User: Fold this.
Amino acid sequence: MRDFWEKAASAVLGLAAVAMAVALVHREFFPTKNQGQVRKSAFVADWRNILPAGRLSGSPVAPITIVEFTDLQCPFCRRFNAALRAARKKFPEEVSVVVVHFPLSGHAQAQPAARAVECADASGKFFETLDFIFEAQDSLGRKPWTWFANGSGIRDTLRFAHCMADTTARSMVTAGLAMGRRFDLVGTPLVLLNGWRYGVAPSDTELVRAIGDLLGGRKPYKDFPTSALGVRAQ
Assistant:
């Protein structure tokens, strides 16, 4: 009888462990609304008001503008950055990108990383540093910030180091956080394509398809307003 109860207890513990593992996997890869990852896709009519809060790559009059609220320590943002780079490479003249800071409070390296790309902007290396930090995201907190600067092609690392030593809140980071709160944003990335806010960040193939539709004068999504097909960044 004792063996029976011991086996039964072991079985229950085993099932509990499996259930916990499934729950953790689901939370990691299928986040809930409260984590800010799953939202209903919709058009944001006043999306152009976001643009001054971000850094622009590409032409300010490009026919396609992608806005991303990002956290440099966020693994989902790292994944989307690969899709974003693919789109920028495929449509270098037609697509502009606006990156808005939204470092999450739960990520210890998010604020310093946001400061790092702002310091890199003084050397004209904002997007190079952003891309490199995402590529080397596993090194955040393990490598000095000058290592990231070197990897991004910043020559004046002394100037960069002095900038990083100043922990005063950067205006663009503050502006991004304030703008994100307008959207009740609690998770990243939040992606908008010519004002279309995605519930979940699109894959590279989905993003390229939607851009192709817009460039062809077609609605990429059923509820995308026809009046916004030719929207240009202001």
